[in-house]
Specification:
The chain is mainly alpha-helical. The chain is 49% helix and 4% strand. It contains six helices and two strands, in the order ααααββαα. The protein has a two-stranded antiparallel sheet with strand order 1-2. Strand 1 and strand 2 form a beta hairpin. Helix 3 runs antiparallel to helix 5. It is flat.
Amino acid sequence: MKDLFVNRFKYYKSLGDKSFIQLSDEQIFWQYNEESNSIAVIVKHIAGNMLSRWTNFLTEDGEKSWRNRDDEFINTFKTKQEVIDFWEKGWKCFFDALDQINDENLYSTIYIRGEGHSVLDAVLRQLAHYPYHIGQIVSIAKMLKNDDWKTLSIDRNKSQDFNAEMKNKFSENNKEESPNSSPVCFQNSHEVRDEYKQ
C-alpha cells in the first residue's frame, strides 16, 4: 500500500512541477485579487502543511508549535526558484514520512491538533488536501498561459485517439492488466507503471 501512496502522490506532484516549468517568475506571483492566492502562496501553504504534519509524525502532533499557518497565506518569496525550493522541501519531508509507513504502524494512532487519527487516515486526508490545492495551481497556470498552455492531460478533442492508443497498447495479450483511468497503476494489479517507478 505504501508504494501505491507514494506513486499516487508523485503523480500529483508532477502536475505542479509541469505547471511551474511553463510559468515565468511574474506569473508565479500573480493573483486575481486581494482575496485570491497566488501560486507562490498556495505552494507556501502546501509545503508548510507538509513540514508540520510529517516531521516526526509518529511521535509528535502534526500541528507543530513552530507552524504559523496564517503566515503561509502571506507571500515572502522573492523568486520563482525560492518557491520551487520550498515546494521540494515540503515534498521531501512528506515522502520521507511515507517511507516510514509499514504494516505494523499503518493503523497506529497519531495526532493532529490533539485529535487522534490512524496513520492511514492521516495519509488519506492529504490525498484529498494536496491535490485540491494542486488543482488550483494548474487552473491558475492554465488561465495565465491561455493558448500557450501545454496540457497535462489528454489533448482537447483527442479522447477517442487516446482511447484507441490505450486499447492498442494493452491488447488481447494483456487483458488481465488492462489499464484504468489512473496514470499510475493498473486495474486489479499492484503493478506500477514504468514511468512512475524509481
